[in-house]
Design goal:
Elements (H helix, E strand, L loop, with lengths): L7 E6 L3 E2 L5 H31 L4 H4 L1 H25 L1 H17 L1 H6 L6 H32 L6 H26 L10 H22 L8 H5 L24 H22 L1 H8 L3 H25 L5 H21 L4 H13 L2 H10 L6 H10 L3 H15 L2 H4 L1 H20 L10 E2 L4 E2 L5 E6 L3 E4 L2 E4 L2
Parallel strand pairs: 1-3, 2-4
Antiparallel strand pairs: 1-5, 6-7
Organism: Pseudogymnoascus verrucosus
InterPro entries: MFS, MFS_trans_sf, MFS_TsgA-like
Pfam families: MFS_1
Length: about 475
Amino acid sequence: MAGGGLPISVTVVQGGFLTGKKLVFPLFLVICLFFLWGFSYGLLDVLNSHFQTVLDITKLQSTGLQVMYFGGGYFFFSPIAAEVLKRKGYKITILMGLSFYSVGAVMFWPTAHFSTLNNRLAAFGGFLVCTLVIACGLATLETAANSYAVVIGDPASASSRLQFCQAWNGVASFIGPLIASKFFFTGANANNLTNVQYVYLAVSCAGIAVAVLFAFSKLPEVAESDLQGSNIETSAVDEFGNPIGQGPIYKEYNMIFAFIAQFCYVGAQVTIGAFFINYALEAGYDKPTSSNMLSYALITFTVGRFFAFALSWVFQADFLLIIYSICAIVFNAAICVDTNKTGVIIMILLYFFEAPMYPTIFTLGTANLGRHTRRGAGILVMGVAGGAVFPPIQGAIADAANTRISMVVPLVGFVYVLGYVTFHWFTHGRHILRVKEIVIPGTEGVVGGAIETVHYDDEKVFDKDVQIEKL
């Protein structure tokens, strides 16, 4: 940014945003979406290890689940979801996502029912297709829900609100492995796929139930015309010298760097989750215990989300993420060199520092996009494709050496995240304590337009009929 004064963050909301009780039910529905994909993600990591045993496939082959989930679904389908969101709005997009999600989940039933060791590769291919359909649904939901959680309420608390919604994703993600440890890895179920059918049938029913809630609920919508008209006329520029929210999308460099950071973070998170059980097994734990410990890690992740939500009301989001990234790098390095069972405990603690990264990067990357807000949300969700690229690399290293050495792969991802948020912090005022945004009086109440956040350095800012003085 130009100038050397203390930056101001001014938010203009055309038509207003929801506050108080009006915000509760829409956020409840959004949280249901986060819960659904958290549960699916928790099951995914357990299935990765379970398929290695039941279908007799290698670690590298098992990462095909992650490739389909994060690559096929999120990377390739997120742009389609973003275009549907732009043309049809939030409600239609969410219903489309829930439809894909429920159909993909119910497809697990025949696939698991007809799976045998003789047709194991064909059966695994069937599971990959099921995972792809579910992932297309989740990519659609995530494109809509993350953006909706940000724009529906007070922009001054957008990051905190998304942290809170994402925290329920964590709650669901540790329930998945808990169920798996009871139904997948114990007794007669340790070497078959019978109960996989029932678990995913229940998942499909849950998706249908949430779809019914959305179908019959009157949700406030943010019109595309409001997004396109939300840019205020101002000479304010971003850290790269471009007019805020007004340039072509390929010049939204902060969004591009945030996309790479999201790609690296999700890649790191997914590889740690996918190989957690393998790491624990090599450390000396049995499979049921390893699955339970993965649940403890996801509980730690959830606690970290809520803790970060509380801290986000006090500290600036990018500064907070710098601290978390440094801690993640230190703990990740420790599990790469630890040869004892304590490495698993360190890995569980690493989940605490992963917790706020996704929602914080998403919020930083989609700020000040104006007419590009919805497409920007789709691009940031595409960053989840890092979960398709990192696991095969780590799987190849784990097969060639061991899982402990392969943990250097997520370490690279955390290093880039640290670089991005450090650059963002230095170019956005270097604030430690949270800077509250100024909202034009009269814009609160009902959602009717888009959020436009503009940062200023000048002593006074004049915008036509509105004068805002620096606090």
